[in-house]
Amino acid sequence: MSPDGREVRLALPSRGRMEEETLEFLRECGLEVRKPGPRRYSAIMPGLPFVSVVFQRARDIPRSLSSGDVDLGITGLDSLEEARAGGMFGITVVHEALGFGSCRLALAVPEDWADVRRVTDLPGAPGAGRIATRHPCLAGRFLEAAGLSGFEIVGADGALESAPSVGYADLIADLVSSGETIRENRLKLLEDGVILESEAVLAGCSSSLETNPLVLSTACTMLEYVEARLRGRDKYLVFANMRGCSPDEIAARMSGRAFLGGLQGPTVSRVLGPPGSGWWAVNIVVPSSGLYEAIEELRASGGSGVVVTPVRYVFEERPDRCARLLDFSGRRRR
To answer: Average per-residue pLDDT in the chain?
Structure first.
């Protein structure tokens, strides 16, 4: 809680893979969440002590944001867009691509519908009348855009993949990651049946962001850590020693090599060894995909004693998303 007694309410997913990936991602960002017990639906964030964490179903978080029951939340884009398609407003997307929870909302039909491969084949399918889904608004809008009518959309909880086999529905619109569960239940995805590509997003209650400076500053702080972590992922800081007469000579040796560009270029500094030793220290940031090539190029440039360490964060200038959020909040208050 802040010195004046205020707090920021942050909602996180409470179940399954989405909960696990959210907590792991926040931990990587330096925003670890600590729960008093595994069955508790509240928690704290020591890095932001004025943040009060509550756990909810991912699909309920947009409703809590819209109503102002929470100030910030992490949920799937599918849940957010379903809420918006259903007429729920007052939600601002703070970061639209957190890099986890990737899946797609897609139509799947029984695999024995041999002649049904595309959405336009559905009207000719035997008994294709009921679609089971947790996303009725998005599914309905998709069918309408495809020019299809006459389908009954039925709500469902639990494992949607079993709905066709038990006769509850004829096909489904469900979230798909690898597609393995779809195949195991003798279903197949339509070639053009992707309704929405989804991943985890950070969103906020628009009124809280507009009227509560603590919520706005918390959102910007989270953005700083999130973007720095996303930039730092899969990168390494590489150190090496080189003999030479000057930093310019060292830089010239490295110039033009594909994997030694770093973020803005290599950093070269003198090693304080014995007089006349002529050693220089070089450090660069390289992506993991080019690590070995960078080491080979350093060797070819005369580098030795190469040390490699993972990068956790890369902080740049203030994130564009934070600047846009501050601008949006300022315009809405005027």
So the answer is: 92
**Which CATH number covers residue 57?**
3.40.190.10
| Predicted TM-score (pTM) above 0.85 | yes
150 φ, ψ (degrees, to nearest 5):
85, 5
Of 20, 95, 10, the closest CA to residue 44 belongs to: 10
CB crowding 240-258: b at 16 or more within 10 Å, else e = bbbebeeeeebbebbeebe
Q: Is residue 210 part of a domain?
A: yes
Among 180, 132, 190, CA closest to 156: 132
Number of domains forming the structure of the chain: 3
Q: Which pLDDT score, from 0 to 100, does residue 149 have?
A: 84
- Residue 159 phi/psi, 5° resolution? -80, 105
Residue 30 within a domain: yes
d(CA 316, CA 29) in angstroms, rounded, equals 15
Q: How far apart are CA 118 and CA 190, in angstroms?
A: 5
How many percent of the chain have pLDDT more than 90?
72
3-state secondary structure of 283: strand
Q: CA 100, 105, 106, 110: dihedral to nearest 10 degrees?
A: 90
Q: Is the CB of residue 161 less than 8 Å from the CB of residue 172?
A: yes
Q: Where are the beta strands (DSSP E) in the chain?
A: 8-13, 42-44, 51-56, 72-76, 91-95, 103-110, 130-133, 152-155, 171-176, 187-198, 200-205, 235-243, 267-270, 279-287, 304-310
Cα gap 302→143, rounded to integer Å: 62
Inter-residue contact 66 to 88 (CB < 8 Å): yes
